[in-house]
Design goal:
This protein is an alpha+beta fold. The chain has one domain: Jelly Rolls (Sandwich). It has a 9-stranded mixed sheet. α2 crosses α4. The longest helix has 17 residues.
């Protein structure tokens, strides 16, 4: 298979203390029929997240998986693909429809697959996003697929998504993480720290990833968010969250979209690093 310039292999990750992720406090999963009224919006403001079942249908889940598999095999121009570190050992042995099992991340794909674009633009997703942001004029800011292949999908350490975005701190961002497989504590479901979005930006450092120092994570407050296929986690851009490695033989695939108001204020990477990076915050880890 030809390696294209939009495909690279992950060079981060590593061993970590399993105590960084606790499984004893699960999140509440709301039924899909739940209307985000003022009480629910208030809960989102307080906690920084809401988990909701059946946000996309089984047919949409299947279409999304097929779309991702085709993109992993075709590698079209403009779609960024990151392979797991072990990919070079397995890639030559895989058929085209199996190549998704060595992919860690796909990014910028909604222009390349109508099935995935329709998920990002669906009312089931945009309805709660609009309610949270308080406006109908929202835009898709980022589209990603985050995959933990069986037997080796690596950890994504604790972090805040705003640490990656050149946007003003006052800009509200809603992330939507949609499970395409059963996401469990063993195969790398989401973990969150409720209320951490209210505590402001935390300096990030380059260790196993661009991350919050392990010693700075309040693990006693960890809430684990197992999700069935089609369920979604809606969360604030400053919420502390992370996902442990997949130590099972099952797949843990997810879509992640970020939305913001159309009038959001952009900044520069230099300004972002002054807030989140050790260059400006004198972070030690």
């Amino acid at each position: 298979m030809t390696t294209m310039t939009n495909t690279r292999t992950d060079d981060e990750g590593g061993e970590y203390d399993s105590g960084l992720y606790r499984d004893d406090t699960p999140a509440t999963l709301l039924p899909s029929s739940t209307a985000l009224d003022h009480r629910m919006i208030g809960e989102y403001r307080d906690l920084g997240f809401l988990a909701m079942a059946d946000v996309i249908s089984p047919a949409q889940v299947r279409d999304a998986v097929h779309g991702l598999a085709e993109l992993a095999a075709r590698r079209p121009e403009g779609v960024d693909i990151q392979l797991e570190a072990f990919a070079h050992e397995r890639l030559a042995q895989l058929e085209a429809d199996e190549q998704l099992d060595v992919v860690r991340k796909l990014q910028r794909f909604v222009h390349a697959d109508e099935r995935l674009r329709q998920v990002a633009a669906s009312e089931q997703v945009l309805g709660p996003v609009r309610a949270i942001l308080g406006t109908d004029d929202v835009v898709l800011f980022q589209d990603m697929a985050l995959l933990k292949p069986p037997g080796g999908g690596r950890e994504k350490p604790w972090h805040q998504d705003k640490a990656f975005f050149a946007l003003s701190l006052e800009t509200p961002i809603v992330g939507v993480w949609i499970a395409l497989d059963e996401a469990t504590p063993a195969n790398g479901c989401m973990h969150v720290i409720p209320g951490s979005h209210l505590e402001g930006p935390i300096p990030h450092v380059r260790r196993r990833d661009w991350q919050i120092c392990d010693s700075k994570v309040p693990t006693a407050r960890d809430v684990v968010v197992p999700l069935p296929p089609g369920a979604a986690l809606f969360f604030d851009g400053l919420l502390h969250h992370g996902t442990p490695a997949n130590v099972t033989s099952t797949r843990r695939r997810a879509l992640q979209f970020h939305y913001l108001r159309r009038d959001a204020v952009r900044t520069s990477d230099a300004e972002r690093l002054m807030v989140f990076g050790p260059e400006g915050a004198d972070a030690e880890c």
